[in-house]
Specification:
It is a single chain. The chain has helices at 16-25, 47-55, 120-123, 190-217, and strands at residues 6-11, 28-35, 38-46, 63-67, 75-84, 91-98, 104-114, 127-130, 134-140, 148-151, 160-162, 173-174, 182-187. The termini are far apart. By secondary structure, it is of the alpha+beta class. The strands form 3 sheets. Strands 1-3-2-6-5-4 form a 6-stranded mixed β-barrel. Strands 10-7-9-12 form a 4-stranded mixed β-sheet, with no helix packed on it. A 3-stranded antiparallel β-sheet has the order 8-13-11, with no helix packed on it. A hairpin with a 2-residue loop joins strand 2 and strand 3 (38-46). The chain folds into 2 domains: 6-99, Beta Barrel (Ribosomal Protein L25, Chain P), CATH 2.40.240.10; 105-187, Ribosomal protein L25, C-terminal domain (RNA Polymerase Alpha Subunit, Chain A, domain 2). 23% of the residues lie in helices and 38% in strands.
Length: 218
């Protein structure tokens, strides 16, 4: 179970570009809270809490709780947009969406590969060529899978892992449905590829020689 972050959240009085800059100087990350059949609200989040979650990779595809002064209990939300300072590499604005058990969202779920040491192709020196590090799905906001695990045991050189290899939990569906797209392949070792290329070149040379000999016989 992934750690659930709790963000202190309070209404933001200063809005606009100048207001947001002032809030950042005071140690806040400005944001917007919306959804749940309520009007959007400008909010402030504590910079240290947001930065901790961001550095741990939990600002995307993870539910968080917000603690709003004067309101009973904690609200469940998800970050739908995180703006990053291009120089400092830190969050400078966060859009939070309220969610409940009826909310479905489009989200990217990371892929994890298991039992690589049991893959004949990788044992031979092959390479697991990852085409997609995450798979985009529609999922219930309060029951999103944390990761998709794919077992590569038994896969030899040349094997292809398609989207159909992903086990989807109940209520989760792929965004792309018109094709069984590739997630990863087991590519041949570079030495083997070089050898194959050399053999192909030799075969072509031999073919040309045979053709010349044949012409002389005629």
């Amino acid at each position: 179970m992934a750690e659930t972050d709790v963000f202190y959240c309070e209404p933001r009085a200063r809005t606009g570009t100048g207001g947001a800059r002032a809030e950042r100087r005071d140690g806040w990350v400005p944001g917007v809270l919306y959804g749940g059949d309520r009007d959007p609200v400008a909010v402030n989040l504590k910079k240290n809490e947001v930065l901790k979650a961001y550095k741990a990779g939990r600002m995307r595809a993870n539910l968080v709780k917000i603690d709003v002064p004067g309101e009973d209990g904690q609200q469940t939300v998800i970050a739908r947009d995180v703006q990053i300072d291009p120089v400092k590499g830190q969050p400078v604005h966060v859009d939070l969406m309220r969610v409940d058990d009826k909310t479905r969202i489009k989200v990217e779920i990371p892929v994890r590969f298991l039992n690589e040491e049991q893959s004949p192709g990788l044992k031979k020196g092959g390479v697991l060529n990852i085409v997609r590090h995450a798979v985009e799905v529609f999922a219930p906001a309060v029951a999103m899978p944390e990761v998709f695990e794919i077992d590569v045991a038994g896969l030899d050189v040349g094997a292809t892992i398609h989207a159909s290899a992903v086990t989807l939990p109940k209520g989760v569906s792929l965004v792309v449905t018109d094709r069984d797209f590739t997630i990863a392949t087991v590519a041949a070792p570079s030495a083997l590829r070089s050898s194959d290329d050399g053999d192909a070149g030799g075969a072509e040379d031999g073919g040309e020689a045979s053709g010349e000999d044949g012409a002389k016989e005629d």
